[in-house]
Amino acid sequence: MERIKIIIEKHPDGYIAYPIGLKGVVIAEGDTYEEALAGIRSAIHFHIESFGPEAFENNDIMETFVAEIAV
Questions:
Q1: Cβ atoms 26, 18 nearer than 8 A
Q2: Which of 11, 36, 41, 62 is deepest in the core (most CB within 10 A)?
Q3: What are the extents of the domains in the chain?
Q4: What is the C-alpha to C-alpha distance for residues 33 and 23, in angstroms, rounded to an integer?
Q5: What whole-number distance in Å separates Cα of residue 8 and Cα of residue 17?
Q6: What is the pTM of this model?
Q7: What SS3 string covers 24-45?
């Protein structure tokens, strides 16, 4: 079982979720955090079933940070 880091963003109209470290575009949305998380879990399973080991871009991500800067 692979451990995959997920980013979940809260927007005014719901939640968007996407993984880090997979090739291609994998995204899910939901009205709640839990819906977005369940959706991305399903989308990731489908993506890995479709592409196999080639789906992984970089398996050595140790931590993920979110930072904010002013530009």
A1: yes
A2: 36
A3: 6-55
A4: 24
A5: 4
A6: 0.81
A7: CCCCEEECCHHHHHHHHHHHHH
